[in-house]
């Protein structure tokens, strides 16, 4: 009988444990997974419109209103996007479903701060109920310059503050007018140039020569005598069954790492990669966070590493010069440049700065968070030095700014869709980096067309940041 | 104005369930020798909380927003529901003198939640549910009288299992398919789920066999017959019920033999069987795939579970407020997924409270099994409460994506006539055991505590 009592107690605790698992899992769902799950575009609750509440505004860091709700005669609210296309990929739209900040902060903008008081006041005085406003980190002055420079070229510009991960501008073309999304929905959703896709965060492109920043790190770590090692470039090099050319088949002569990066010598990096091998390169690629979830508020694509440890030699050399199967977003490349600027520490990117309540108070500031450490401070400094040389003496000279030391790396990515994509990633001032950028122009006609745009964007961003200090 | 009240009502509902549970703790503390308050007050406060919650909810539900008037039909139904609750409180005390009051209040709280939620989702179902609750309650009140007429019903052990198999074979042959499972039977104009009915018989059968010393013969016979029941249920694609029957068998076998080895052996066999089922049945694979990653197939396989997760997470701890959520986006929300609807409109805290009520029921049921001095009743009580609580666990676990979804009802809460009826009868049985033991153990203090049929004691 006592045995039985013991067994009964054990069964009791087993079942209680089951119930506690339920409680724990529910807590996890509501506390930790809530935002990730509920902002999914399939959630019909996002389409829920409460016409008794005026949705909060979206405001840029300087206080410029990007999106607001206006009361119509029939008592419903209509959403107005005051900067229309210029901030379309940031605000997103809120009509046929939701995207961008409209989706990410949907519930915040529908929420009433101090709900009880607002509702009582509303009954007493007839004042309208207003949701919380979202202040984004974006500076519309930089955003506008970036947008105008991009013009009608397909591509993306990302500007980020290296020390915090704050997104200062996020521009992508083709874009759309969020005011008329629902009217033009049929055209927009299947349009050939996919204007609804935010190329800055969702476009996946081969990194081209900008990937040599990662290859350089692998060289510094795996080639003992990298500082004295040189390579004789003839403009052409063959590995197994793969022939690598330098751009325009130009012979660069004797190059070391710094010189190879400055002139973007494919032969050097291909040769080094074959020396340390695919698994070492793969290790570095993982560490620099290509596959790390970015934790960004807006929808973004996951980068792809197209290299496995048993890769053939031709796959390896292609990857080392940024071709092959590896694909990255412009957002990630901006973060990579920012991490080099920030002594090897990659910060988590964020676009929502804080929430502004109806009573004028503010709160819920996003706290900058370290995402990962991509390399040592010494390596970052060495890389920075080489990137300065790229802009001063090499392929990136079009990005140089008078009176400011710019560090950067250009890229030309061959791809299956036509002309090469043009890349530039970099940061400035090199001595004390304030901004990092990534510019991508799809199927660019002119060689290196991303580089001058990057220069001008950096110049504007530095000017704006100086004004604020 | 209404919005303001609904917003405030969210706090009120969380308060109701929180205070309800606290009163349960007060009662238990007194029983354990501590003192947090009077246990008699605790129970009467719990009863008042149930009535208050009922009134609050129906005041919100009955208001017609478009017309700005009260819907008298809903008010009337609310009043009938209120009378039902009061009558249940009154009669349960009379018919089960000295039954555990916490089980009654916990059960009524869940039943009230069910009425409110069904009124919100589909009023027609709420009316039917109330009807079944009344039938179940009447049956439950007659239960003690029935057992008084047939005092030694444990001798019918063979009859129980034969009826079990009879019902299962009938379903296999004449069954009607609903929601992907062929586990419905239609007699006259009424469709019902035999798998619910046989729960009752199955527990009776096992308790009757296990009341004697468990030898190899009993072990093999019960093992084979239980495996047969489980297999038939799997063939009817009723995986949830199969799982419940298996667990009930294992638990009852374990407490009858106190043999851990057998328990773990059973679990290993079950894992093997589950893997086998995964390989050969496509509907099992579909369920598991929908559990592992519902996000890749939102439009089809993952639709239900993903919508359930949206419902639970979107509004946070306090929920959207009654009538303000969108629970109807979840398919079969009124039966299997009612827990998601509760979390959506009453909030995740209230949902956690519902889980705690099941823990409270479990504790009280186990208490009865422990206090009972007769082996047969002990096993019976534990079988009943394990079955009920495990059922609650697998459906809530399925709805929140902790375990793969198996379609069973949440006892007392989900819509389903047979389910309500059987759950009520099982609670009646549990309480009857409690009352019976209280009355008879005292007389038999000196006599042997074990059934001695066949001249053999267990220890």
From TrEMBL, chain A:
Residues 55-134 form the Penicillin binding protein A dimerisation domain. GO terms for biological process: cell wall organization. This is Penicillin-binding protein A. InterPro entries: Beta-lactam/transpept (IPR050515), Beta-lactam/transpept-like (IPR012338), PBPA_dimer (IPR054120), PCN-bd_Tpept (IPR001460). Coiled coil: none annotated. Gene3D superfamilies: DD-peptidase/beta-lactamase superfamily, Penicillin-binding protein 2a (Domain 2). It holds the Pfam family Transpeptidase. It comes from the Bacteria. GO terms for molecular function: penicillin binding; peptidoglycan L,D-transpeptidase activity. The lineage of its organism: Bacteria, Bacillati, Bacillota, Clostridia, Lachnospirales.
Automatic annotation (TrEMBL), chain B:
GO terms for biological process: cell division; regulation of cell shape. GO terms for cellular component: cell division site; plasma membrane. GO terms for molecular function: lipid-linked peptidoglycan transporter activity. It is found in: Membrane. Keywords: Cell shape, Membrane, Transmembrane, Transmembrane helix. The chain crosses the membrane at residues 12-30, 45-63, 75-96, 102-118, 130-150, 156-175, 187-207, 219-235, 240-256, 262-281, 301-318, 338-363, 375-400, 412-430. Its main location: membrane. It is a multi-pass membrane protein. The keyword Acetylation does not apply. The keyword Disulfide bond does not apply. This is Lipid II flippase FtsW.
């Amino acid at each position: 009988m006592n045995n039985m009592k013991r067994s009964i107690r054990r069964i009791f605790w087993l079942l209680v444990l089951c119930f506690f698992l339920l409680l724990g899992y529910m807590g996890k769902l509501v506390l930790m997974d809530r935002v990730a799950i509920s902002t999914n575009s399939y959630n019909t609750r996002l389409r829920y419109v409460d016409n008794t509440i005026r949705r909060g505004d979206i405001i840029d860091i300087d206080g410029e209103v990007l999106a607001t709700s206006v009361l119509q005669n029939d008592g419903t609210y209509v959403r107005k996007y005051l900067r229309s296309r210029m901030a379309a990929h940031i605000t997103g739209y809120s009509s046929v479903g939701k995207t961008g900040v409209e989706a990410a902060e949907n519930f915040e903008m529908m929420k009433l701060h101090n709900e009880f008081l607002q509702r009582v006041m509303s009954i007493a005085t007839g004042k309208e109920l207003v949701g919380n406003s979202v202040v984004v980190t974006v500076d519309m002055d930089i955003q506008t310059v970036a947008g105008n420079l991009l013009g009608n070229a397909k591509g993306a510009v990302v500007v980020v503050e290296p020390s915090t991960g704050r997104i200062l501008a996020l521009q992508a073309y083709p874009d759309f007018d969020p005011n008329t999304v629902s009217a033009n929905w049929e055209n927009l959703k299947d349009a050939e140039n996919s204007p609804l896709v935010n190329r800055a965060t969702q476009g996946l492109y081969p990194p081209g020569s900008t990937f040599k920043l990662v290859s350089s790190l692998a060289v510094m770590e795996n080639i003992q005598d990298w500082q004295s090692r040189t390579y004789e470039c003839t403009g052409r090099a063959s590995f197994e069954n793969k022939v690598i050319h330098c751009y325009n088949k130009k012979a660069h002569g004797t190059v070391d790492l710094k010189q190879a990066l400055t002139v973007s010598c494919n032969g050097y990096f291909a040769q080094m990669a074959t020396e340390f091998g695919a698994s070492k390169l793969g290790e570095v690629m993982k560490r620099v966070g290509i596959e790390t979830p970015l934790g960004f508020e807006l929808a973004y694509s996951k980068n792809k590493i197209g290299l496995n440890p048993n890769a053939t030699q031709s796959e390896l050399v292609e990857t080392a010069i940024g071709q092959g199967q590896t694909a990255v977003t412009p957002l990630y490349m901006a973060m990579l440049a920012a991490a080099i600027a920030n002594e090897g520490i990659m910060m988590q990117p964020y676009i929502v700065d804080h929430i502004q309540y109806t009573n004028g108070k503010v709160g819920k500031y996003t706290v900058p968070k370290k995402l990962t450490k991509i390399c040592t401070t010494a390596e970052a400094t060495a890389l920075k030095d080489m990137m300065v040389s790229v802009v001063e003496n090499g392929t990136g000279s079009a990005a140089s700014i008078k009176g400011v030391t710019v560090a950067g790396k250009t890229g030309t990515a061959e791809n299956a869709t036509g002309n090469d994509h043009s890349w530039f990633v970099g940061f400035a001032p090199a001595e004390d980096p304030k901004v990092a950028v990534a510019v991508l122009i799809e199927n660019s006609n002119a060689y290196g067309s991303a580089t001058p745009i990057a220069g001008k964007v950096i110049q504007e961003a530095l000017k704006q940041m100086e004004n604020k200090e | 104005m209404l919005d303001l009240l609904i917003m405030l009502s969210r706090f009120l509902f969380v308060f109701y369930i929180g205070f309800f549970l606290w009163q349960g703790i007060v009662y238990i503390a007194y029983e354990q020798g501590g003192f947090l308050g009077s246990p008699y007050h605790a129970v009467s406060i719990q009863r008042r909380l149930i009535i208050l919650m009922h009134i609050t909810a129906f005041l919100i539900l009955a208001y017609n927003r478009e017309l700005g008037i009260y819907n008298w039909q809903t008010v009337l139904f609310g009043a009938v529901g209120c009378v039902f609750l009061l009558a249940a409180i009154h009669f349960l005390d009379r018919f089960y003198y000295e039954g555990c009051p916490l089980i009654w209040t916990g059960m009524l709280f869940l039943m009230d939640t069910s009425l409110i939620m069904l009124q919100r989702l589909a009023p027609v179902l709420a009316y039917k549910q109330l009807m079944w609750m009344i039938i179940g309650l009447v049956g439950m009140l007659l239960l003690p009288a029935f057992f008084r007429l047939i005092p030694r019903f444990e001798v019918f052990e063979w009859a129980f299992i034969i009826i079990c198999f009879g019902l299962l074979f009938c379903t296999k042959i004449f069954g009607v398919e609903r929601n992907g499972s062929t586990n419905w039977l239609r007699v006259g104009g009424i469709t019902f789920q035999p798998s619910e009915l046989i729960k009752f018989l199955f527990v009776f059968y096992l308790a009757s066999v296990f009341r004697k010393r468990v030898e190899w013969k009993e072990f093999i016979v019960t093992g084979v017959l239980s495996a047969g029941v489980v297999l038939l249920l799997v063939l009817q694609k009723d995986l949830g019920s199969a799982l419940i029957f298996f667990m009930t068998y294992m638990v009852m076998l374990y407490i009858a033999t106190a043999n851990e080895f057998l328990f773990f052996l059973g679990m290993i066999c079950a894992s093997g069987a589950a893997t086998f089922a995964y390989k050969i049945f496509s509907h099992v694979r579909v369920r598991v795939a929908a559990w592992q990653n519902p996000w890749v197939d939102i439009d089809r396989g993952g639709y239900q579970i993903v919508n359930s997760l949206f419902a639970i997470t979107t509004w946070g701890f306090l929920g959207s407020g009654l009538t303000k959520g969108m629970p109807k986006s979840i398919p079969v929300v009124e039966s299997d997924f009612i827990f998601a609807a509760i979390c959506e409109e009453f909030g995740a805290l209230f949902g956690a409270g519902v889980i705690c009520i099941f823990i409270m029921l479990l504790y009280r049921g186990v208490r009865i099994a422990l206090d009972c001095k007769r082996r047969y009743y002990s096993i019976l009580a534990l079988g009943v409460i394990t079955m009920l609580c495990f059922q609650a666990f697998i459906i809530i676990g399925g709805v929140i994506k902790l375990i793969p979804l198996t379609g069973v009802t949440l006892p007392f809460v989900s819509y389903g006539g047979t389910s309500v009826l059987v759950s009520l009868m099982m609670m009646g049985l549990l309480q009857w055991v409690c009352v019976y033991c209280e009355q008879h153990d005292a007389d038999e203090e000196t006599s042997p505590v074990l059934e001695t049929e066949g001249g053999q004691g267990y220890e």
